[in-house]
């Protein structure tokens, strides 16, 4: 069974209460339950990690290279300026999909730039919690097995 890791960056632990008009009203745990259940339906084991600290996200990416087949990453605001997270993604060989609940390109100017996008397989943004579900779909395709053919 393929193993995937979802990494949520800063402030995403407050999903449900944080700016619900932008990020939705579903809470963090229920979204994670949905992601994990969807992954399982598709025959993938999914684990969740969240941190508000840049270094912890980098450590987790390093660990993931040994024990997971792919990562779904919502780096939160680090997306826009963390060269350290970008370098960590570039350093590991497993595919990383960049995810955002909101459409970062339709928001504040500083959110239009993703410094991690060039080292990710692709970016999914603007579909609320479904952005994560689409990323699971994408990984099913990327990690491919006979069930996709
Ligand atoms: C976000 C978008 C970022 O700009 C923001 O800083 C977040 C959440 C999103 O999921 O839409 O924390 O990554």
Write up this protein:
The protein has 149 residues and is of the alpha/beta class. It has one domain: Rossmann fold, CATH 3.40.50.9100. Helices cover 37% and strands 19% of the residues. The protein has a five-stranded parallel β-sheet, with helices on both faces. Helix 4 links the parallel strand 3 (70-74) and strand 4 (96-100). Helix 3 runs parallel beside helix 4. It is globular, with a radius of gyration of 14 Å. The model has no long low-confidence stretch (mean pLDDT 95). The structure holds 1,3,4-trihydroxy-5-OXO-cyclohexanecarboxylic acid (DQA).
Radius of gyration: 14 Å
Percent of residues in helices comes to 25-40%
Q: CATH homologous superfamily - what is it?
A: Dehydroquinase, class II
* Helix count from the secondary structure assignment: 5
CATH topology, by name, is Rossmann fold
Spell out the helices and strands N to C. Answer: EHHEHEHEEH
Q: Could you say which overall geometry the principal axes of the C-alpha atoms support?
A: globular
Level-2 CATH architecture: 3-Layer(aba) Sandwich
Which small-molecule ligands are present, each listed once?
Answer: 1,3,4-trihydroxy-5-OXO-cyclohexanecarboxylic acid
User: Which ranges are low-confidence, i.e. pLDDT below 50, for 5 or more consecutive residues?
Assistant: none
Approximate strand percentage? 15-25%
Return the average pLDDT rounded to an integer: 95
- State the total count of DSSP E strands: 5
Which strand order does the major sheet show? 2-1-3-4-5
Structural class: alpha/beta
* N-to-C CA distance: 17 Å
Instruction: Supply the number of structural domains.
Output: 1
- Describe the main β-sheet briefly: 5 strands, parallel
The first-level CATH class name = Alpha Beta
């Amino acid at each position: 069974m393929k193993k995937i890791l979802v990494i949520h960056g800063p402030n995403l632990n407050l999903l449900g209460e944080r700016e619900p008009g932008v990020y939705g009203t579903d809470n963090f745990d229920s979204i994670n339950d949905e992601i994990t259940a969807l992954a399982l339906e598709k025959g993938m084991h999914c684990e969740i990690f969240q941190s508000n600290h840049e270094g912890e996200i980098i450590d987790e990416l390093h660990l993931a290279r040994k024990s997971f087949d792919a990562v779904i990453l919502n780096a939160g605001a680090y997306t826009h300026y963390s060269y350290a997270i970008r370098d960590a993604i570039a350093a590991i060989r497993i595919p990383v999909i960049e995810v955002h609940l909101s459409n970062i390109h339709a928001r504040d100017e500083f959110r239009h730039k993703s410094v991690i996008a060039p080292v990710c397989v692709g970016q999914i943004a603007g579909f609320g919690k479904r952005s994560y579900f689409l990323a699971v779909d994408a990984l099913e395709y990327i990690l491919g097995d006979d069930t996709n053919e």
